[in-house]
Structure formats: structure tokens, C-alpha cells
Task: inverse folding
């Protein structure tokens, strides 16, 4: 009994050190949370656990959805997120004074996010210090781009097979930046932009040429890097957004007039046929 109490106190001590940055409001399928053994140490060792509804999330958790799995997450900075299947999203906290979230890392997968910023807080790492224009922003990073948003409804996906990030804006505005070339583009409602992941040798080449003082446009032309181009949201991307939003199609916040204008009626935000068991295909989906 004595040893049990000591173990319990140790576990509670670790838990007490962690800060909650949100929770899972609803889920479907197999979802795993990868959690640091100690959020306050420099160790990157993590323990995996099966996610449950109402499960609280630490400010450093990684959420992984498996095949045919979906999740809806509410963060403390008033961001609500839906995750599609085969998605890995990491919460990264960079604010002083209080535990909040202003940085998310999408390693792969599909995410739709609604961000409603509250009172601005001074940033510690991201955005940069003394950058007043970037306060109270949500930053979401993929292997090929960084997107900065304020109050908005937007979608981001990254395919490790195609090595392409696709960002689409439903409402509000999103600034998308190619981290290597530093080229930026403002993506308005109804528009999207695609950002290719550059090979490591191309990235090194760009860095070397920049050190020599070359103009970035000249380097892009020499290396063959495409400029960021906005275009109307493709129908295939709209369908991806509908499927990623299926778990929230009964929620008012995800079915605004603008969202319906861009995506169509929520009752048509359906799951792919291969995710519905044959014996349930004629039954109305419920979340």
C-alpha cells in the first residue's frame, strides 16, 4: 500500500506539471494521442494512448487518426478543428504568461479549422517578438509551408506521397508562406493555393545562392521553383473539405452561410464509400 501511494503521488505530480490546451469533443474510429512522458523536460520520449471523448489534451500532444477515423478538437484559444483520417497533428505552445495555443504542426493529413481569436497575447517564439501585426494569430505549419491566420475558416492538407500542401480559405483571410523562398500570398475566401515540398538539395542550393546575394526570383528561375499562385478552390479539394468536415456537419459553427456557399448543403458532406460498411450504406450516417 505504501509503494502504491508513492507511485500515485509521482503520477499525479507529472500530471500536475502538464497544462491542458484543449480537449477532444467527438471522435470516430481509431485515434491515438502521443504524449510526452514529462512536458517540462527536454526529453522527446512519448507514450501512446487511445483517445476518448472529452479527453483533455496537453499543450504538446500529438493526435494521430488512423484509417476511417475522424476527430473534432476544441482548443483553449477558441480554435475548433476537425481531423480527417490518416492525419498527424501536433499542438505546439509558444505563449508566455498563460497556457494557450498559437502554433500547430501538420505532419500529414487533412485539417479544417475555425479560429476565433480572443485578446492578443505577447508571443514568445511564434510569431516573432515585437511583431505587433502577428499577435493573436494561429500558425499552422506543414513540411512545405507556413500559414498565418486570424479569425477565419480554412482548410489545410499535406500529402507525403505527392509532397504537396493545399490550403483553401472558406471565410476570412490566410497568409501562406513558402518557408524556403519566403514568398507569401494572401488567400481570400473561395481561393486556394498549392505549395510543393522542395527536395533537400534544392533547399541547400537556395540557401547557398541567397548567401551570395542573389535575388530570390533569379534563384527560383534557375532552380525551377514555381511561384505561389491562387486559384478558385478545386472541386476535388472541396470534396476533401466536406469529408473532413463530416463529423461536424450538424454544428452551426461549421455550417455558416459562407461554408454552405462554398461547400454546398451539409447533408451532402458524406464519408467516402470505402469507409461505410456494406450493411450500413443505406442507413443515414450519424455522428
Result:
Amino acid at each position: 500500500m505504501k509503494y502504491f501511494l508513492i507511485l500515485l503521488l509521482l503520477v499525479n505530480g507529472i500530471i500536475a506539471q502538464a497544462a491542458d490546451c484543449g480537449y477532444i469533443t467527438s471522435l470516430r474510429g481509431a485515434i491515438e494521442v502521443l504524449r510526452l512522458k514529462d512536458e517540462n523536460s527536454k526529453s522527446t520520449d512519448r507514450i501512446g494512448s487511445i483517445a476518448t471523448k472529452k479527453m483533455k489534451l496537453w499543450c504538446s500532444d500529438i493526435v494521430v487518426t488512423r484509417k476511417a477515423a475522424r476527430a473534432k478538437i476544441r482548443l483553449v484559444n477558441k480554435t475548433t478543428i476537425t481531423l480527417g483520417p490518416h492525419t498527424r497533428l501536433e499542438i505546439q505552445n509558444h505563449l508566455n504568461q498563460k497556457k494557450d495555443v498559437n502554433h500547430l504542426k501538420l505532419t500529414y493529413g487533412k485539417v479544417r479549422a475555425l479560429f476565433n481569436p480572443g485578446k492578443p497575447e505577447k508571443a514568445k517564439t511564434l510569431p516573432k517578438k515585437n511583431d505587433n501585426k502577428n499577435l493573436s494569430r494561429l500558425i499552422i505549419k506543414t513540411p512545405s509551408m507556413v500559414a498565418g491566420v486570424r479569425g477565419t475558416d480554412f482548410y489545410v492538407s499535406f500529402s507525403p506521397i505527392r509532397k504537396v500542401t493545399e490550403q483553401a480559405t472558406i471565410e476570412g483571410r490566410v497568409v501562406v508562406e513558402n518557408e524556403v523562398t519566403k514568398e507569401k500570398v494572401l488567400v481570400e475566401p473561395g481561393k486556394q493555393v498549392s505549395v510543393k515540398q522542395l527536395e533537400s538539395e534544392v533547399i541547400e542550393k537556395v540557401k547557398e545562392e541567397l548567401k551570395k546575394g542573389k535575388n530570390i526570383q533569379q534563384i527560383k528561375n534557375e532552380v525551377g521553383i514555381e511561384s505561389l499562385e491562387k486559384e478558385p478552390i478545386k472541386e476535388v479539394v472541396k470534396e476533401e473539405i466536406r469529408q473532413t468536415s463530416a463529423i461536424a456537419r450538424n454544428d452551426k459553427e461549421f455550417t455558416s452561410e459562407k461554408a454552405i456557399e462554398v461547400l454546398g448543403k451539409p447533408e451532402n458532406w458524406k464519408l467516402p464509400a470505402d469507409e461505410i460498411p456494406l450493411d450500413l450504406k443505406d442507413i443515414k450516417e450519424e455522428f
User: Anything to note?
Assistant: The helical segments are 2-17, 200-211, 216-223, 235-244, 257-263. The first helix runs from residue 2 to 17.
